[in-house]
From TrEMBL:
The lineage of its organism: Eukaryota, Sar, Stramenopiles, Ochrophyta, Bacillariophyta. Keywords: Coiled coil. Transmembrane segments: none annotated. InterPro entries: EF-hand-dom_pair, EF_hand_dom. Residues 82-112 form a coiled coil. One of its GO terms (molecular function) is calcium ion binding. This is EF-hand domain-containing protein. Pfam families: EF-hand_8 (PF13833). It comes from Thalassiosira oceanica. SUPFAM superfamilies: EF-hand. Gene3D superfamilies: EF-hand. Residues 122-155 form the EF-hand domain.
Length: 255
């Protein structure tokens, strides 16, 4: 990596308000991500379990529970099963409250920034494991102050540089991860055609939006593959391979 001098101004004007809002959402998500990831995953699991427990027992479910409880070495009444469920729900609700308090404490820290371990954890959550060197290179792309972390001003500046880059030479590994997370509004690790269209249309217009959609979601024959929800979904690996390839096409003549 070659030395770089800090820059304090961003190219062009401000990005669209809706896109800025989504950018801030992703920034808040990435700050201390390595500390929040396991907690958020456990919270999601608890919420799903509580939703299942909250469903009223139908007669068929009661009959199923009776046979299940009667098939083992010990027998358990339906009433006992319901009481056991209430006990488990109370324990889960207490754990949920403790985890939410922990998240609140992390999010309320005066200084909010993204560290190398947060970038690594975010990539891991997207299905991509990277080396320490790769993480360092990604952080270097954004860390204008050279203090080892990424703050909001650096985060926004890097994003604006990349969306305005027409040469394909702007370092973009970190940007590609952020852009994917912006598209992935429901945080399921996949981006859909619908999610992508909603964000792209305001930035680039209909014609270029359709071109990008075809490149991301099209097969070798150019036809859109509607795999998954909301018109079709792709993971970070597919997204990254496409955007890196397209960036290389643009940058080759410049080089």
């Amino acid at each position: 990596m070659s030395p770089k001098s800090p820059k304090t101004t961003s190219p062009g004007g401000p990005i669209a308000p809706n896109e800025l809002k989504e950018l801030r959402r992703v920034y808040d998500q990435l700050c201390f991500f390595s500390e929040k990831a396991g907690t958020m995953q456990r919270l999601q699991s608890i919420k799903c379990t509580l939703a299942e427990y909250s469903r009223p027992l139908t007669s068929s479910m009661r009959q199923r529970d009776f046979f299940l409880s009667s098939s083992g070495h010990h027998r358990q009444s339906i009433l006992g099963g319901e009481e056991d469920r209430e006990t488990k729900m109370a324990a889960l609700q207490q754990e949920q409250a403790e985890l939410e308090k922990k998240l609140s404490e992390i999010r309320s820290r005066n200084a909010q920034y993204i560290r190398p371990q947060d970038t690594a954890a975010a990539l891991k959550s997207l299905g991509k494991r990277v080396s320490k060197r790769e993480v360092q290179n990604m952080m270097w792309e954004v860390d204008e102050k050279l203090d080892g972390v990424i703050d909001w001003d650096e985060f926004q500046l890097n994003f604006e540089r990349n969306i305005r880059d027409s040469s394909g030479l702007e370092p973009a590994s970190f940007y590609h991860m952020v852009q994917f997370m912006i598209y992935d509004r429901d945080n399921n690790g996949l981006v859909s055609i619908d999610e992508t269209m909603n964000m792209l249309y305001a930035r680039v217009g209909r014609t270029e939006m359709e071109s990008v959609i075809t490149k991301l979601f099209g097969g070798d024959d150019g036809a859109i593959k509607e795999d998954g929800r909301q018109g079709g979904e792709i993971d970070f690996q597919k997204y990254s391979s496409v955007v890196v390839r397209e960036q290389q096409k643009i940058s080759s003549p410049q080089k």
